[in-house]
């Protein structure tokens, strides 16, 4: 338990470091470059996987828009702060989607991503295609046709992800993949891309309420 608490504390310390870095951001310029809607001089709105958050301009703290007392998980904080810190001057999506191993700087992590994220996701929804479809639609993801259950999810308004699931049978296990825009690393760090992909799967599993 002590080790787990220490790990949580370390994540919280890192989030605080990123909050302080965010204070140096030119938010007006970044909102324009990232084509993020709703720029405001006091409280900046930003949507992450369909949830509305606010960034306080005075101290760069994050709040959930509908419940400002709710604690924001560290993954969400990292994803938002990294978007502003790592995005290049003029990021543009290509419209061409590729698996993780084809992304610049992400290939070394592809095997671990498959083992730790994609395989557990496929196992969770084996024989539960309708549960996956209903869950994804409940989360507001756009249905895609290219598999037994495929969807497009917007991590941010500038960051689309596509997730595809093929159910298993007596001969083959279920499979899943997540595709990212080829230029996604123009918007954030490659390791953050992996974290966001994992967060997508986590949100789907949690929302499905499958044990």
Question: So how many helices?
Answer: 6
Domain tally: 2
Looking at the overall shape, the CATH architecture of the largest domain is 2-Layer Sandwich
- How would you write the strand order of the largest sheet? 4-8-7-6-5
Strand pairing plus helix content: what structural class? alpha+beta
Order of helix and strand elements from N to C terminus: HHEEEHEHHEEEEH
Largest β sheet strand count, sense and barrel closure: 5 strands, antiparallel
DSSP summary, beta strand count = 8
Helix fraction, binned, reads 40-55%
CATH secondary-structure class of the largest domain? Alpha Beta
Average predicted local confidence, pLDDT: 94
Structural commentary:
- With 211 residues, the chain is α+β, with helices and mostly antiparallel strands.
- The protein folds into 2 domains: 85 residues, no CATH class; 111 residues, 2-Layer Sandwich (TATA-Binding Protein), CATH 3.30.310.
- 41% of the residues lie in helices and 21% in strands.
- The protein has 6 helices and 8 strands.
- A 5-stranded antiparallel β-sheet has the order 4-8-7-6-5. Strands 1-2-3 form a 3-stranded antiparallel β-sheet, covered by helices on one side.
- α3 packs antiparallel against α6, α4 runs parallel beside α6 and α5 packs across α6.
- The longest helix is centred in the first third of the chain and has 21 residues.
- The model has no long low-confidence stretch (mean pLDDT 94).
């Amino acid at each position: 338990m002590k080790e787990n608490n220490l790990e949580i504390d370390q994540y919280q310390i890192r989030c605080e470091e990123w909050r302080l870095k965010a204070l140096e951001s030119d938010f007006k310029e970044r909102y324009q470059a990232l084509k993020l809607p709703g720029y405001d001089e006091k409280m900046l709105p930003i949507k992450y996987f369909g949830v509305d958050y606010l960034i306080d301009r005075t101290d760069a703290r994050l709040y959930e828009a509908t419940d400002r007392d709710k604690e924001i998980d560290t993954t969400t904080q990292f994803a938002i702060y990294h978007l502003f810190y790592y995005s290049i001057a003029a990021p543009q999506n290509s419209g061409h989607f590729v698996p993780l191993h084809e992304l610049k700087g992400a290939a070394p992590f592809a095997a671990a991503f498959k083992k730790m994220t994609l395989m557990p996701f496929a196992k969770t929804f084996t024989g539960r295609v309708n549960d996956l479809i209903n869950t994804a639609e409940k989360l507001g993801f756009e249905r895609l046709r290219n598999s037994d259950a495929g969807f497009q999810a917007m991590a941010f308004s500038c960051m689309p992800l596509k997730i595809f699931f093929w159910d298993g049978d007596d001969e083959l296990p279920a499979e899943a993949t997540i595709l990212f825009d080829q230029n996604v690393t123009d918007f954030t760090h490659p390791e953050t891309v992996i974290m966001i992909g994992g967060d997508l799967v986590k949100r789907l599993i949690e929302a499905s309420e499958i044990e």
